[in-house]
Amino acid sequence: MRFLNLFAAGLLSATLTAAAPYVKRNETGICTTNKRKAWQNLSDEEKAEYIDAELCLMNLPPKLGYNWAKNRWDEVVYGHVVQSNVIHDVGAFLPWHRLYMRAHEYILQTECNYTGAQPYWEEVLDVDDLAGSVVFDPETGFGGNSNGSCVTDGPFTQLQLHITQYTNYANYCLTRDFSTTIYQGANQTHLDECYASTTYEEAWMCYVSSPHTAGHGGVGGTMLDVVASPSDPLFFLHHTNLDRLWWEWQQANLSARLTDISGRNVPRTSYLAQNNFTYPGPEILDYDGDPYNVTTLNHTLWMVDLIPNATIADVMDLRGELICAEYV
């Protein structure tokens, strides 16, 4: 029960719309400080700055007071691991990950002096040649396939990881194991099917089952671990791309889709064994802002003190001051 009480305490902590330390509005008055680009459209200098910021995060000391955390990266990963059963297979899936992408982007900017925005991996471009993607270039990208063994090229060679769904004291390496078959879920046909969805619930389930699964399963290895997949730095480019796809769907009928949210709060499948935490019970559901098992705009998105909590309503507009982004 201790873990559940901590979770509830986190949800009860100040729910703030924390604007970035700077915001920039374009001529329409819209906040667009964070101009998020596809990885292949970054210059080599921009790619190097992003990779350096990620390495910085892995070398920064922890700051949240967890005695098991070896660095700031552990704390960022933990934010996803510790609540996997309330952010997957639920209506809050896309909004929670939108805010998590912002948390990661914000920490890079404020703690590692990163001057860019969170890039994304435009995965549809690599359906015919996954291994040849620019994101896997060992010189300017994230390193390549390791066939289930430790990654041995690129900036994250032999990267040591510490958190799994069972323990925060592990010591294992980053792995990848490509599947071109699974990766076909990222193709344009699947994207078009999702884009044609008429409701959030239909869109959410489509995007999760096709492009989302394609990215995780296509890369494989650490990325295939539902719980600890943020341990692979490529996770953040993958989920930013998924957020871009959701934003494109929202923009197709923005006046209606900025408030279109639905879905369950109790997942159909348990992902997390850590601390004997299985499904969310009343200890969490009483504090998430929703009627039982119904996702609403009032739903609290817990960021585990990485950044202040927010509600789904706070993140629905990508151009609002909380996310303050546009995809270019």
Automatic annotation (TrEMBL):
InterPro entries: Di-copper_centre_dom_sf, Tyrosinase/Hemocyanin, Tyrosinase_Cu-bd
Organism the protein comes from: Zopfia rhizophila CBS 207.26
The protein's name: Amino acid transporter
Keywords per UniProt: Copper, Metal-binding, Signal
Regions crossing the membrane: none
Gene3D superfamilies given in the database record: Di-copper center containing domain from catechol oxidase
Entry-linked PANTHER family: TYROSINASE FAMILY MEMBER, TYROSINASE-LIKE PROTEIN TYR-1-RELATED
Source species taxonomy: Eukaryota, Fungi, Dikarya, Ascomycota, Pezizomycotina
GO MF terms, alphabetically ordered: metal ion binding; oxidoreductase activity
SUPFAM superfamilies named among the record's database cross-references: Di-copper centre-containing domain
Signal peptide: 1-19
Tyrosinase copper-binding domain ranges (all copies): 88-105, 232-243
